[in-house]
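Data deposition worksheet. Section B asks for the primary sequence of the deposited chain exactly as it was used as input, without tags or linkers unless they were present during the calculation. Section C holds the resulting structure in token form. Section D is free text for depositor observations; keep each observation to a single sentence. Incomplete worksheets are returned to the depositor.
Section A, Depositor: J.P.
Section B:
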Amino acid sequence: MLKKIFEVFFLLILMFSIFSACAYKDSSYGEYEHIIVFADSTLYKNIRPELEQTFDQFVYTPITEKSFYLELQPLQRLDKYKKYRNIMFIGLLDGKDVVSQYITQSFDTEVQSAIKQGKIFDIFQEDLFAKEQMVIFLASTDLITLKQNLIAASDEIYKKLENYYFDRLERLMFTKGEKTVLEEYIAEKYGWRIRIQHDYHLVKESDAGNFVWLRRINPDRSLFVFRFPADSLIMSDSQWLVDLRDSLTTIYYERDSIAQKDTYTVHTEFHDHAALKLVGVWQNHKLYIGGPFRTYAFFDQDQKYIYVIDILVTAPTRRKKPYLDQLEVMANSFQLLPGRLSL
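Section C:
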């Protein structure tokens, strides 16, 4: 709680001190996964392994892609990069380099004291220089403490940035439109709702009313929802989910199958339901194509049904993570409508 109080206090200082600006701000620009880093080059070199461990988490698609990309820039270029979507300042209190001095001069004595006492380390500020922007400050008293703090807060820092990334991505995805008519059709017929981007289409519905396939081309992306009556005990193991997905994609996706050596299971939550999540790569030996997929499965106690939500991407020669992330946004918009198990 004390850390949060100091964070709020610090943000007020930012808002009414050297970073004070008029109400209107231009929109930020740049890649959503790109972070411009302002730090002394020697300091950056010393903490680079810890930074990469925090931000450069890899995604196998089946090529290796990073979650976020770090780019070091000198403070002299702040005016050029200050409207980028993601910016990070890293420094030491009373450090002699220009970035550390810039950061130190931004803090009053109370905030500096809080940093020295370990009550503040990472500060996140939205829309500081531009709209739809995240600025991160990392500050400690010395290099060893900076490394220790970065290691200790690594997961929390990454999760904060990832959550903001997905919130911002969701806002962007639906600015060009949304298939509200199709959403209402699905809600009325099946008793669940999902947000659908403007250029997805309903490709297939099963006669049994338990399978819905949505698809978008260029590049090829798919999302399907499947449900079936079951007992919650099935959730204790994931092999059934692998087998089920392979059987469904054999029918609907021209015999796609899971590359099991490149796939693993995560026990997670999906909207307050205990869930299984398959993370991996799909392949099609007939068509010689493949790509990343994610499959969520959860048991709904009220309906006594298992729901399976699957997403996949086919994007040869392109980075696949951005498209996979968009599908994650759609998948996570899924919601059951109370009392409306429709068929």
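Section D:
Confidence is low (pLDDT under 50) at residues 15-22.
Residues 87 and 135 are 5 Å apart (CA to CA).
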